[in-house]
Write a structure and sequence with these properties.
The longest helix has 17 residues. This protein has a domain of 143 residues: Rossmann fold (3-Layer(aba) Sandwich). The protein has seven helices and nine strands, in the order E-E-E-H-E-E-H-E-H-H-H-E-H-E-H-E. The protein is globular, with a radius of gyration of 17 Å. The protein is an alpha/beta fold. Strand 7, helix 6 and strand 8 form a beta-alpha-beta unit. The strands form two sheets. A five-stranded parallel sheet has the order 6-7-8-3-9, sandwiched between helices. A four-stranded antiparallel sheet has the order 2-1-4-5, covered by helices on one side. Bound molecules: adenosine-5'-triphosphate. The site of adenosine-5'-triphosphate has 11 residues, from helix 1. This is ABC transporter ATP-binding protein. InterPro entries: AAA+_ATPase, ABC_transporter-like_ATP-bd, P-loop_NTPase. It holds the Pfam family ABC_tran. GO terms for molecular function: ATP binding; ATP hydrolysis activity.
Length: 212
């Protein structure tokens, strides 16, 4: 088992957004979190990623409770991709390299060939030399996806991470992620998408978020 979550609850301003959430993620899993707007899908992904505190229950990664992990190391394994990612102000190449300067990624090595290959797979080999601060929303999502893949997490949490992409690039991103899972059978992906057709394409299992 890659990750397990038991009896999670989240409150916001004394309102219980969700409770009793249970989840098991095994290597190779492709899970889609479903629920209407405001039901707490983003809050759930943020909790799984260790970006928001655990109110109740337990999350374990590779058999170790979240509390026993150094959080930077945990978050490098369970990586959250928001809909509007931080892109930075350097060139796209600079921004793809930047996380490798952090101590938590010291054992990882920036692979420019992989970056170029994945940008080409996403139809944007030209992106490397552009300035990240001027990227469109979709281009920013391309940067964020490639940056995340380069860091090689075990579990990728995609929060509407293709919502700003055109249909062709969306399909290319789905294919890239499918191949990424094949290349690393120990990996898994959790998607939040409002598009039921995309959900059917990318997920093998649903996790409904039920309000309250
Ligand atoms: N920092 C915050 N402070 C107060 N309320 C918040 C905060 N973050 C989220 N909420 C509230 O928690 C609820 C769940 O938000 P969340 O963003 O997780 O929903 P969602 O299911 O991802 O929605 P959508 O599908 O629209 O993206 C919403 O009612 C939202 O207003």
């Amino acid at each position: 088992m890659l990750l397990s979550a038991t009896d999670l609850r989240r409150t916001v301003a004394d309102r219980v957004v969700w409770s009793g959430v249970e989840l098991t993620v095994n290597p190779g899993d492709r899970v889609a979190v479903t629920g209407p707007s405001g039901s707490g899908k983003t809050l759930l992904l943020r909790t799984l990623a260790g970006l928001d505190p655990l109110e109740t229950g337990e999350i374990t990664l590779a058999g170790r409770p979240q509390a026993q992990w150094a959080m930077p190391a945990y978050r490098s394994q369970v990586m959250y991709l928001p809909q509007r990612p931080f892109v930075g102000t350097g060139t796209v190449l600079d921004e793809l390299k930047r996380p490798f300067q952090f101590k938590v990624h010291a054992a990882r090595r920036f692979e420019q060939d992989a970056a170029a290959r994945w940008l080409t797979a996403l139809h944007r080999p030209d992106l490397l030399q552009l300035n990240a601060s001027t990227l469109s929303g979709g281009e920013g999502q391309v940067l964020a996806l490639v940056r995340a893949l380069l860091l090689n997490p075990a579990l990728l949490l995609l929060d509407e991470a293709t919502a700003s992409l055109d249909p062709e690039t969306t399909h290319a991103a789905e294919a890239l992620l499918a191949q990424w899972l094949i290349d690393g059978p120990e990996r898994a992906v959790i998607w939040v998408t409002h598009d039921p057709v995309q959900r059917a394409r990318v997920a093998t299992r649903l996790l409904p978020v039920v309000p309250g």
